[in-house]
Amino acid sequence: MWEKIQKIWKIKDLRNNILIVIGLLVIFRFTAHIPVPGVDTSALKNSLQGNQMFQMMDLFVGGTMKNFSLIMLGVGPYITASIIFQLLGMIVPKLEEIQKEGESGQQRINMYTRWLTVPLAFIQAFAMIRLLTASSRILPMGMNVFQLITVMLSITAGTMFLVWIGEIISEKKVGNGISLLIFAGIVSSLPVALAGAITNYTSADFYTFVLFGIVAIATVVGVVFISEGQRNIPVSYAKQMRGSKTYGGSSSHLPLRVNMAGVIPIIFAISLVMIPPMVAQFFVSAKAIWLRESANFIIQTFNNQLIYGVLYFLFVFGFTYFYTSVVFHPNKIAENLQKNGGFIPGIRPGKETENYLKKVVSRINLVGASFLGLIAILPLIVKAVTGSGSLSIGGTSLLIVVAVVIEIYRQIEAQITMHEYDRV
Q1: How far is CA 379 from CA 44, 304, 373, 396, in A?
Q2: Does 398 reside within a domain?
Q3: Number of separate domains in the chain
Q4: How far apart are the first and last CA of the chain?
Q5: Are residues 159 and 256 in the same domain?
Q6: Helices 395-423 and 351-386 sit at what angle, rounded to 10 degrees?
Q7: How many whole angstroms separate alpha carbon 135 and alpha carbon 103?
Q8: What pLDDT, on a 0 to 100 scale, did the predictor assign at position 164?
Q9: Are 253 and 233 in contact (CB under 8 A)?
């Protein structure tokens, strides 16, 4: 380990890139503590405490909501815009053509994504202000339109500032910038959670702490195992005679990852689970009795741990299959194999290869979707077993943290290897 650190420190470009990334993350965390002027942070914390929906949203944006900071939305609008363009690429031929243009096409898609992020952030800022002020008086009463728009523009600018930081981090090739920002937000909240648990510690909590430690270690091991797990499909290439020379005849494999979708299904599921109670919050004070009762019923239903957990699991499970079908195309893989003279032993090229790949991916997805679903509801399971929520193990948080660490390690390892090749 120390030898690896010494190698990193000796490579000037890599060392400078890592220091720049650390500096940008420090700026991100500093900005997270700059609240919007005029906000009553104590009322906001009371509003967030005990509200499961708000706590999940605060976790997703990296803990910036509890301070009602300028970057309270985090990179959520940018992620939403990215998902929208991924889905539109399936149904809009023009976007699909742009995606096939390689790096130049990807740059155009990124530009469109940034443009869409601005109105999404502006709308989400308005919705968040209305939602939080409906549950508690966190902003001064009698805000005029100009003051409201100023606050919304400030929050939108904060989101675009984070997107800019994320893109700079990505350019340094020390991990994905957006993922690193979420990672930094999650990690920064751990000391506060541990300090609170230690402060309230009693001797009766010893076995609970041990159980939490075991669950955390098992979760990390499971995340690494599933994230790195893949099914290798053997592929053979037929020999081809060109003049007096023979080409092909080699064997390879087609890697199919157990978790192709990453954390995208969990992000989709979080959005769907939060929408009904979020919308219902706007109608809890409605004049119509039936509308007010319906809103309260929806909020109470989603506050039920069992109903919430079942819906959350089903959404994650279903979206895993859906998103895998978006990013994995068996027909194109079968077509490319056939064009290059490749085939899966025992399987006819063409349609049979396509059907075989669909069947294998469906079986792999059963494991990946079940794992993601369990990871998503892990805090609810631990809380139900122990009866304590002081050290709730965030499976989604651990999944993001482990995935980001693995990605950073791979990119740094690739730069070290490239530097050693350059020296040779």
Answers
A1: 23, 14, 12, 9
A2: no
A3: 2
A4: 23
A5: no
A6: 130
A7: 46
A8: 92
A9: yes
Instruction: Provide mean pLDDT across the span 151-175.
Output: 88
Q: Which of 176, 199, 222 is the last residue of a domain?
A: 199
In sequence order, the β-bridge partners of residue 342 are 237
Q: Residue 303's domain is classified under what CATH number?
A: 1.10.3370.10
Confidence (pLDDT) at 150: 84
User: Pick from 177, 199, 221: which residue ends a domain?
Assistant: 199
In whole angstroms, give the CA distance from residue 165 to residue 186. Answer: 17
What is the rounded CA–CA span in Å between residue 294 and residue 4? 59
Is there a domain that residue 267 lies in? yes
Distances (CA, A) of 300 to 45, 53, 308, 384: 21, 12, 10, 18
pLDDT at 53: 59
Whether 97 and 233 map to the same domain: the answer is no
Cα angle 187, 193, 199; round to 5:
145
pLDDT in tens, 233-285: 888 877 665 555 555 567 778 888 888 877 778 777 777 777 777 777 777 77
- Confirm whether 402 is domain-assigned: no
- pLDDT per residue over 304-347, tens digit each? 778 888 888 898 898 888 888 877 888 888 888 888 778 888 88
Separation of alpha carbons 168 and 170, rounded Å = 5
Which residue's structure tokens are 């890599």?
14
Range of the structural domain that residue 330 is part of: 211-393
